[in-house]
Amino acid sequence: MNFKNKFYKIFNWEHWPSSMLYIPNLPYAFYLAYKAKHLAFFTAANPSIKSSGNGTESKFATMYLIPEQFRPKSILILPKTRIDFVIKKIEKAKISYPLIAKPDVGFRGLLVKKINSKEELLSYLKKYPINIIIQEYIDYKNECGIFYHRNPNEETGKITSITLKKFLSVTGNGYSTLKELVLKDNRAKIYFDIINETHPLQLNTIPKKNELIKLSVIGNHCKGTQFINGNHLISKELHKTFDKINKSIDGWYYGRLDIKYNTFNELQKGINLKILEINGILAEPTHIYDSKNYNYLKALKEIRKHWSELYNISITNHTQFNIPYKSTKLFIYEMLRLKNYVTIIKKLD
Asked: How many Å apart are CA 349 and CA 346, to the nearest integer?
């Protein structure tokens, strides 16, 4: 990365390390733990998800909490599974290329890739000998993240964040190469290394005038997707739809759903949508990464507001529904194992 890109990232807080959102808020986290009289009180928030979704849970198992009508076709592949068996499982599940491959345990788009052929899949599985989810590629036009929470003793919940996702792209002018277009674009050039990895053969081609070139299909911020604050779209109809969805997902009260959809009108009605993932207690209200509408201090405050709701839900589950807190020692052990796991798979990449 050149100096200009580094300079841009330093002075645009949306590109800062995620720890910068959490370290300043640690005193508030300890205050909540003091009130709850337990350091790992938040593990009672989502009883049906391991540790309420601290990042160590199986995404595949969690996905099957989602009603079938909203769930993408998916299979789980274990390390060293014979490729002929993998192909049979894909065919049986009626998943076709392109498809999405991603780790069963992972976050922030780590190792998530669009796979276009059997050869690419074989290469991917050889490179990453870990539990891998193979999921149908959902070609709906749009993607968003919706943060929802509901206190277990209440009938209705609240949507507190809508994040609209704008995938990394450039528009052709008829004479510049794709590489030149990328390097001229203020956002795309920051992610040139990722683009070079996924589009190496296309960088020297010349897109037609006004041709839109999508540079990423993975809706993660770390892969260049722009997060846009969509909270103005929160409505009574949307609340009603997500109250229904929430009640159909047993034991999930707090977190973010990552969703593919065609039109927002259909999303409001609860039709033509697929839930890609359920994110639990580690989920962020990702609309805060819209740095044009959110400053850093406002983002810190938004994190605290959500942690306050997490506290209320966890306390209710524990005191009224006898959901136990996970032992602090075991929770720390899980997080240390997760850190070690992430270190290992990053080396594979």
From this structure: 5
Domain count, the chain: 3
Q: Give the C-alpha separation, 56 to 333, whole Å.
A: 11
Return the structure tokens found at 112.
Answer: 């998530």
Residue 220, in any domain of the structure: no
Range of the domain at 85: 73-137
Do 176 and 32 belong together in one domain?
Answer: no
Q: What's the pLDDT tens digit per position in 320-344?
A: 999 999 999 999 999 999 999 888 8
User: Could you tell me the pLDDT band of residue 5, with boundaries at 50, 70 and 90?
Assistant: low
| b (16+ CB within 10 A) / e for 79-102 | eeeeeeebeeebeeeebeeebbbb
In a domain, residue 1? The reply is no
Residues 152 and 238 sit within 8 Å (Cβ to Cβ): no
**Do residues 151 and 195 both lie within one domain?**
no
Residue 221 falls within a domain, yes or no?
Answer: no
pLDDT at 169 over 70: yes
